[in-house]
Amino acid sequence: MARDLMPIVKRSRREGVALHPKAHKVMAKRKALPGERAGARRGKMTQYAQQLREKQKVKRMYGLLEKQFRRLVKEAERKEGVSGELLLQYLERRLDNAVYRLHLAPSRTAARQLVTHGHIMLNGRRVDIPSIRLKAGDEIAIRPKSAKNTYFQSLEIEESPDLSWLSLNKSKMTAKVTSVPNRDESEPDINEQLIIEFYSR
Fold first, then answer.
1. Residue 137 within a domain
2. What percent of the chain has pLDDT over 90?
């Protein structure tokens, strides 16, 4: 399986977004882009460069490779509705993203690993495909055998997700998908229109 092997902190610095909790500290100290001198002047970005950077940022934010991402964009363009909002909705409805949103993992990368290793159940069945798209009525749970694992034993969910589409039951450690996510519930600093324009060239 293909993977992006660039260090997560380097990717975060390149996109200007902390893709992992450990990236916050490094990004606070090092403001320059990777390979750029501190204080160097940056030229004005072209329209193409803005579209490319936005596409790369969202791809890396959700942990997708180019082929997967392009397929999602094309699917969103075929459907009736606003293509950019549909794209973000598809990304939010991924199983690994839902696990991250439920605070069961510190990052989407960690959430992807939990799903891939079979620690998560969907509608009572063990699954290991992070890209499964959730729909209203689906139930997410931690596999009973995995719940005895030290990771889940030490996991303290301080707050339930502030999302209208996910309902968490802390005592049973299960969650239900109640609806589809709104645009306001995806990452705030995304300009999805630039991504649609990039693929419409």
1. yes
2. 52
